[in-house]
Design brief:
With 229 residues, the protein is mostly helical. It has seven helices and no strands. It has helices at 11-37, 42-88, 90-103, 108-132, 142-166, 172-194, 200-228. Helix 1 (11-37) packs antiparallel against helix 2 (42-88) and helix 2 (42-88) crosses helix 3 (90-103). The model has no long low-confidence stretch (mean pLDDT 82).
């Protein structure tokens, strides 16, 4: 039995969850910090944060579903085309598969034998994997992406919301920055470990991107608040 553990089957869900959590933490933190920088009250900050959480989660779910569904539609079209070719021109498809294996280094005779054997075993699956790079582990899953992205966004957004709710007015901005930075570092590290990759670079990338986004939002909030006042 094949016992090696790889992360390729997690790619779709991992991408959706990391995107959702990262967007939830950063966008909600930016919203809270931007409003807080304009000297708004706690109730205004929390109202803005909750609106951002709900709107963001719904938007992420719909966005993921639509985009991944488009990918799935394209994959289904390619699968239908491959089925038609196998039914109407099997010899051509066998020759095509033979050339694929020959281009990978197999002798022509052996490449033909391998192509014939795999065609008998699973013609469609073999052609999808070799020609299009499509397999059961990598096909798009719209609902999985939508649900994973929405839930991870809500969880991520809840972090700065909780900090804003319990922190005092004087410590709200500093507390949010500290907790969000730690959360982003944790997200970068955990997503790297989940995907079985080295954690240092993803962690630094996520933290720096979040800090830059929050700094820009705070500056805009401060300027806008001063202008309104």
């Amino acid at each position: 039995m094949h016992s090696e553990r790889h992360a390729v089957h997690r790619i779709g869900l991992l991408r959706a969850m990391v995107l959702g959590a990262n967007d939830g933490i950063i966008s909600t933190a930016c919203l809270i910090l931007g409003v807080a920088a304009s000297d708004a009250s706690r109730s205004v900050i929390l109202t803005a944060g909750m609106a951002g959480l709900v709107a963001g989660a719904v938007s992420m779910a719909l966005g993921e579903y639509v985009s991944v569904s488009s990918q799935r539609d394209s994959e289904n079209a390619d699968i239908a085309k491959e089925k038609w070719e196998l039914e109407t021109m099997p010899e051509h498809e066998l020759d095509e598969l033979t050339e694929i294996y020959a281009s990978k280094g197999l002798p022509q005779v052996l490449a033909r034998e391998v192509a014939e054997a795999l065609t008998k075993h699973d013609a469609l699956g073999t052609h999808l994997a070799e020609e299009l790079g499509i397999s059961e582990h990598t096909t798009a899953q719209p609902m999985q992406a939508a649900v994973g992205s929405a839930l991870s966004f809500a969880v991520g957004a809840a972090i700065p919301m909780i900090v804003a709710a319990i922190a005092t007015a004087g410590a709200r901005i500093f507390s949010t920055l500290v907790v969000v930075t730690i959360s982003l570092a944790g997200l970068g590290w955990s997503s790297a470990r989940f995907g079985q990759s080295a954690p240092v670079r993803p962690t630094i990338r996520v933290v720096i991107g979040g800090l830059v986004a929050m700094a820009i939002t705070m500056a805009v909030g401060k300027l806008f608040g001063a202008a309104v006042a």
